[in-house]
Amino acid sequence: MFGDARVIVVGGGIAGIAAATRLIENGFDNVTILEAGNRLGGRINTVPFGETCVDLGAHWVHGEKDNPVFSLASPLGLLESSRDLENMRFVLSDGSHLTLDAGLRLFERCSIVLDDLTALKEFRGSVADYLRSRYDELLQDVELSPDDSKAFFDWMSRFECSIEGCNSLDEASATGLASYKQCDGDPVICWKKGGYSTLIDILLSREIDLGTKTRLNSVVTHVDWSGTDTDGGNVKLRCADGSEHYADHIVLTVSLGVLKQDSIAFKPPLPANKVNAIKGLEIGTVNKIYLYYENQWWPDDCSGFSFLYKDKNSSEKKSERSWTDEVIGFYAEKNSPRVLCGWVVGEAARNVEKLTDSEVAEACTNLLRTFVGHEFSVPQPAAIVRSNWFSNPHFRGSYSFRSMHTEEMKTSASDLAEPLVNNKGLQVLLFAGEATHECFYSTVHGAMESGWREADRIINMYTK
Ligand SMILES: Cc1cc2nc3c(=O)[nH]c(=O)nc-3n(C[C@H](O)[C@H](O)[C@H](O)COP(=O)(O)OP(=O)(O)OC[C@H]3O[C@@H](n4cnc5c(N)ncnc54)[C@H](O)[C@@H]3O)c2cc1C
């Protein structure tokens, strides 16, 4: 129907796939995805590991109501709850542990406070200051020594960083956090099998052959939207391999981390409010370390160990902390037998990326032995696989968040999402990707909706 309109989608993550499939389903035949890596999926990356597979990127479907991922996958019977808090153990670095009652009560109270949108919106300061300001009230009738309650606060801060994607709660904005919308329903739903890439299979199962429309290993380095020398189109793209591509519209879906590293040259340069958004919005690093064991050494009724570091949480000592003082914990993977997944955020997550697999496996074993070695005999893992989201130049981070800097710069996702109009008044450069979503940023459903949003924008241009 719209066979003549040439659309190039830069990036084959879920936003790019959503945009391309929507366009094709609506009669746009001339759609090409230029993807820098050697696979589709981007921050959805399911890899074989142990007896099944694990996800190096997106892990859970967050919520049910108004969550398009849930709406697509749930009717097919592909999802199940992975909430198993009652079986999580809060273990301390001195070998002791919190009572389940104290740990869970405090965890649930902190979670409620961090979901209190009215209070967050009104608070002028960081999420760390906000949580600190309410912590005493949460401690009431929870029996914890001052040292243990400090260690719990430190753990909760790192845990919240893994949810928000920030490097430290001190840099995350409380008001900014209030702009994130949690979909109602179970917040931690997992895929029964096949991992998160099952979502891509669903999007492609509607007889859409993206294979012939995708060019892998195509790193876009130049975007010329000046309208001159563009082969009758509006935009010319150049890739690192020297190839040139012409289009009427571009949907740019690369991560905020890629935009921040300035590896794509724009001609004319991006306008000030776009540059402001790229500078002001933030992206943090969250990494996962998967360990596979020949035999499961933790009990069946244990869903994981949350690490509470004692005597390591004073701010003076923060700079001396090694990444092994920052691991949030190790958790059993519901559908991957004999696999534990460790989570690490921020500077610590970036530091792990510099090490070899065997160094990381050894350090993790020592860490597990420190925390639970008196109770369990912790063997060396038989295999390890882990993510490197920061050092990978096609991502430069894990997911976006709102920082104190975002507030100062007075910018928002809508500035990043705003399409650019050329000198003929045409919207030629469109922006999608998780960081462009006003309220579902940092998620798969947000990224997917952003891809659909920009595809619909193009479709509307041609159907009006
Ligand atoms: C560790 C981790 C855990 C997560 N957990 C969850 C979770 O539990 N639930 C959830 O909903 N979300 C989660 N997320 C977030 C979710 O994965 C992302 O929000 C989403 O996948 C982003 O999709 P996207 O299409 O916007 O970006 P991307 O997936 O980053 O896609 C962009 C694509 O652009 C390509 N690219 C980059 N530069 C260029 C270039 N110059 N030229 C061409 N192509 C380029 C990249 O290779 C990439 O494929 C997690 C992410 C990580 C990293």
From TrEMBL:
<protein>
    <recommendedName>
        <fullName>Amine oxidase domain-containing protein</fullName>
    </recommendedName>
</protein>
<dbReference type="Pfam" id="PF01593">
    <property type="entry name" value="Amino_oxidase"/>
</dbReference>
<dbReference type="InterPro" id="IPR050281">
    <property type="entry name" value="Flavin_monoamine_oxidase"/>
</dbReference>
<dbReference type="InterPro" id="IPR002937">
    <property type="entry name" value="Amino_oxidase"/>
</dbReference>
<dbReference type="InterPro" id="IPR036188">
    <property type="entry name" value="FAD/NAD-bd_sf"/>
</dbReference>
<feature type="domain" description="Amine oxidase">
    <location>
        <begin position="14"/>
        <end position="459"/>
    </location>
</feature>
